[in-house]
Design a protein that fits this description.
12 helices, about 260 residues
């Protein structure tokens, strides 16, 4: 919970900075951001302990598991609209930060349904791994090989159902030495009870429950970077209210300039 509180405070401060036009540069600079820019743009270099207390995007792989439209019809702990929005935003965050994305579906041609239409378009660099009927993606050799090939040891996982398709590989990977973060609001389950039980079970093993906004903020880390405008757009996608804030601010700025 300490990490989440710190992240919330950082986001609050960042929101104020977002309203400063000078912080923004063109989107063309986004591709020039280095892998360590989220640290280069800080006014204080964190100690190793302080840096390790937060999520490290440079060591991360995003795993999106079974975001299938048939399974969505069984989800009752989060609205489908929010689940879809957060999942797409999570994919865009990973793309923006050059975090490898691996996704899979249990039975895309069966009753669980196909992967949500808008997801592949949001993550053009993602790798799809087909399973051979395994309920847990960590029981599929090709999937684990794809994760191992990245050379990264921090897994960010979201999926449907939380208590099965997320929890099983999260627990297995954690047992094999991976640091695991589970994005709860980009995952869904048959009931709040099922989701809460899964979160409790995973947290007891050291798996960290987070939200999409947490991953966004800890990946972004600072507005002092040339791709700040692109990160600002992502905040608007995660939070429609935040989009309204920036929209009204921009309109006010335009009105002020017109009045000059």
């Amino acid at each position: 919970m300490t990490t989440l509180r710190k992240t919330f405070l950082a986001l609050t401060a960042g929101a104020a900075m977002l309203l400063q036009p000078a912080a923004f540069t063109t989107a063309a600079n986004a591709q020039e951001a280095s892998a360590t820019l989220h640290l280069d743009g800080l006014s204080r270099t964190p100690t190793e302990a302080a840096n390790n207390a937060l999520f490290d995007p440079n060591d991360a792989v995003l795993l999106l598991l079974d975001h299938q439209t048939g399974l969505f019809q069984t989800v009752n702990d989060i609205s489908i609209e929010e689940l879809r929005r957060n999942t797409v935003a999570l994919a865009k965050i990973a793309e923006q930060a050059n975090i490898p994305i691996i996704y899979t579906a249990s039975e895309p041609d069966g009753s669980n349904g196909p992967i949500m239409d808008e997801l592949p378009a949001a993550m053009p660099s993602a790798q799809y791994v087909a399973r051979k009927g395994e309920v847990s993606s960590w029981d599929n050799a090709d999937f684990v090989a794809a994760v191992e090939a990245t050379g990264r040891k921090t897994l960010v996982i979201a999926g449907v159902w939380t208590s099965v398709c997320v929890a099983f590989p999260a627990l297995q990977a954690n047992a094999e030495g991976y640091d695991v973060f589970v994005v709860m609001d980009a995952s869904g389950d048959v009931s709040k009870m099922a989701s809460d039980a899964a979160m409790t079970r995973m947290a007891a093993q050291g798996i960290v429950p987070v939200t999409t906004n947490t991953i966004l903020s800890e990946t972004h880390r600072t507005w002092n970077r040339p791709d700040a405008a692109e990160w600002g757009k992502l905040y608007g996608e995660v939070s429609p209210g935040y989009h309204a804030v920036t929209e009204s601010f921009n309109r006010a700025q335009e009105a002020a300039k017109s009045a000059e």
